[in-house]
Amino acid sequence: MKKVAALLLVSLAALALVACGGSDDDTSSTAAETTAESAGGSGGGGAVETLKFEAAEGSALAYTSDTAESAAGKVEIEFSNPQSISHDVEIEDAKGEDVASTELVSDGTATATAELKPGEYTFYCSVPGHREAGMEGTLTVK
Ligand SMILES: [Cu+2]
Fold it and tell me: Ligand 1 mean position to 4 CA, how many Å?
């Protein structure tokens, strides 16, 4: 009897997984997950990932980290810049094609969304001279 119950649980879990994974056929459920995710904070079960970038304090032409990591899929990019100097975050793929970019922002936060496939990307600031000065890094999408 116990075995039957366990099997039932397993198949229910499998069903739930299938329901979660089938996001390509139902956009409304994806939107609901997005709302829940942003209301509930960070983390989460792989619905929409928030990818955070931050410019260094002061006036250094640098991000706080030159590496970033994300799960593949739809990603919410959140860039906060405490500086009075404007910066942004652009993401380009291995071929050098832009896949996402935020608005330029100073003393605030800019967001963007991207659909990322697994691979290596480069993120950088598009303000002339900033990338060369060190505002770039590697984003790994798994
Ligand atoms: Cu910049």
Answer: 60
